[in-house]
């Protein structure tokens, strides 16, 4: 699964309903969506990502919906596009993350015209952090989620990396 074989398309209700059923294990369960958030996935800021066969493999969101609420102030300043994502749980840990992530970054670059990105990732999520570092992101700050108390890292990428 290379980034070039992935398609990012407008979120559909069918895909949003499917995403709401995905379940991540253990501490990763904080990434679980709920049926109450199906309309949120349909708000125009979320996009489905499918493979060459048209199977849903993940999703992306851009802008405000990619941010988390924090107890710290002024976290989301500056000229960055926030990016959020979710890879189907059955695909996690299979070395697909980088090509999936790059597909989302290329889409965001093409649609939003920027190469300056920011993301928020749970500090324990070492698999994702490794992928983001490989894509050129650096940790800027540790923050605390205001609802759960979970530590998150704010990571940024300022330069072009895409061919």
Observed structural traits:
alpha+beta, Aminopeptidase, 7 strands, globular
Please sum up the structure shown.
The protein is of the alpha+beta class.
Task: Explain this structure.
This protein has a domain at 3-114: Aminopeptidase (3-Layer(aba) Sandwich). A seven-stranded mixed sheet has the order 1-2-3-4-5-7-6, with helices on both faces. A hairpin with a 5-residue loop joins strand 2 (46-50) and strand 3 (56-62). 22% of the residues lie in helices and 26% in strands. The protein starts with 6 loop residues before the first strand and ends in a 6-residue tail after the last strand. The chain has 163 residues and is α+β, with helices and mostly antiparallel strands. The radius of gyration is 15 Å and the shape is globular.
**Outline, from the CA principal axes?**
globular
Q: Kindly, what is the distance between the CA atoms of the first and last residues, rounded to a whole number of angstroms?
A: 17 Å
The helix-strand sequence is EHHEEEHEHEE
Approximate strand percentage: 25-35%
Rg estimate, integer Å: 15 Å
Q: What structural category do the secondary elements indicate?
A: alpha+beta
Major sheet characteristics: 7 strands, mixed
CATH topology of the domain at 3-114: Aminopeptidase
Could you list the spans in which at least 5 consecutive residues all have pLDDT below 50?
Answer: none
CATH class of the domain at 3-114: Alpha Beta
């Amino acid at each position: 699964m290379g980034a070039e074989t992935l398609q990012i398309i407008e979120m559909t209700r069918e895909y949003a309903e499917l995403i709401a059923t995905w379940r991540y294990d253990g501490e990763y369960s904080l990434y679980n969506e709920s049926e109450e958030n199906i309309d949120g996935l349909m708000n125009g800021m979320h996009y489905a990502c499918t493979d060459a066969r048209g199977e849903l493999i993940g999703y992306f969101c851009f802008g405000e919906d990619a941010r988390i609420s924090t107890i710290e102030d002024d976290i989301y300043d500056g000229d960055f596009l926030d990016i959020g994502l979710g890879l189907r749980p059955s695909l996690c840990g299979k070395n697909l993350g980088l090509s999936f992530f790059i597909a989302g970054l290329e889409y965001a670059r093409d649609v939003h015209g920027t190469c300056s990105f920011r993301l928020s990732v749970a500090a324990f999520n070492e698999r994702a952090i490794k992928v983001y570092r490989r894509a050129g992101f650096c940790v800027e700050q540790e923050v605390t989620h205001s609802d759960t108390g979970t530590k998150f890292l704010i990571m940024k990428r300022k330069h072009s990396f895409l061919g």
